[in-house]
Amino acid sequence: MIGRVAGLVSYKSDDHLLIDVRGVGYVVFCSDRTLAALPGPGEAAALFTDLMVREDLLQLYGFPTLVEKEWFRLLLSVQGIGAKAALAILGALGPDGVSRAIALGDWNAIKAARGIGPKTAQRVVNELKDKAPAVMAMGAGQPEPAPVIEEAGEPPAPAATPAPKAAPKPNASAQSEALSALSNLGYAPGEAASAVAQAGSDDPGADTATLIRAALRLLAPAG
């Protein structure tokens, strides 16, 4: 599995680019938005990648952040959404826009992507509304990835898993990340904080994804 490529851009096309990694060229397909943000030929670039394997085809798809890569994988789980359609949705809305559209049930925003019809857009919202909070939580408080730091790593001692189990106190870190995610979706600070606080009170040991899911349910009637 090729999870990341970093090297010099050899050329950029309408839907892909070639990255030279120490003499080996990797063709990486990207969304319009990602291609526009990448540097030109001869300059350095790095992308997280997802390798798709089919009968007689291997294709790499590239993303500037791990969150966008996870959205790509999640979109592919929807019936009728292939790689091209997933990239079109991400290119039109970006990962934050996709999060917002699904959280608010705004299938018209999804439909704005090239080649996506109303039925497919509704299917995306309906099938991903319960799965989206996990990806939203992944990006909360981490707008830009830091691969070097992640690779260096920290000792597993301060992992978040044992803490909620050991103490029945509210998970402050998860609540902060959930609040950040809801703010990114466009909710007012007051209503977002109230919903997260209520969700945290109902389930003090909840992780970020669970808090986001519960808070969105609380906000739905008012939204």
UniProtKB/TrEMBL annotation:
SMART domains, alphabetized: HhH1
GO annotation, cellular component aspect: cytoplasm; Holliday junction helicase complex; Holliday junction resolvase complex
Molecular functions per Gene Ontology: ATP binding; four-way junction DNA binding; four-way junction helicase activity
GO biological process: DNA recombination; DNA repair
Region (Domain III): 161-223
Location(s), subcellular: Cytoplasm
Domain Helix-hairpin-helix DNA-binding motif class: 73-92, 108-127
Purpose of the protein: The RuvA-RuvB-RuvC complex processes Holliday junction (HJ) DNA during genetic recombination and DNA repair, while the RuvA-RuvB complex plays an important role in the rescue of blocked DNA replication forks via replication fork reversal (RFR). RuvA specifically binds to HJ cruciform DNA, conferring on it an open structure. The RuvB hexamer acts as an ATP-dependent pump, pulling dsDNA into and through the RuvAB complex. HJ branch migration allows RuvC to scan DNA until it finds its consensus sequence, where it cleaves and resolves the cruciform DNA.
Protein name as annotated: Holliday junction branch migration complex subunit RuvA
UniProt source species: Allosediminivita pacifica
Gene: ruvA
